[in-house]
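pls design
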């Protein structure tokens, strides 16, 4: 594995979880060991991000009990395109 230059390029290009998942067919044992070590970091990061988001939203809207929608938008990886949505809508539709 350490002598494979194409694997080294892939390792430098990909994220760690993606890399070890992609080589799991060829290097099953080491891939499995790497993923077992890396996976808790990814899931705990998501939990911490979600908790921090709830704390910010709860501080911003103290009286609001249900923060599910705001949290979903806050931790989403999707890029918001409000300008595009607004430009495609007519402000006052004519009859």
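designed seq:
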């Amino acid at each position: 594995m350490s002598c494979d230059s194409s694997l080294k390029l892939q390792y430098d290009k990909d994220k760690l979880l993606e890399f070890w998942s992609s080589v799991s067919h060829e290097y099953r044992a080491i891939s499995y060991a790497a993923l077992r070590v890396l996976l808790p970091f990814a899931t705990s990061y998501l939990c911490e991000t979600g908790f921090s988001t709830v704390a910010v939203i709860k501080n911003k809207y103290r009286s609001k009990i249900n923060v599910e929608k705001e949290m979903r938008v806050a931790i989403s990886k999707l890029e918001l395109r409000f300008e595009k949505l607004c430009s495609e809508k007519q402000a006052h539709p004519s009859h």
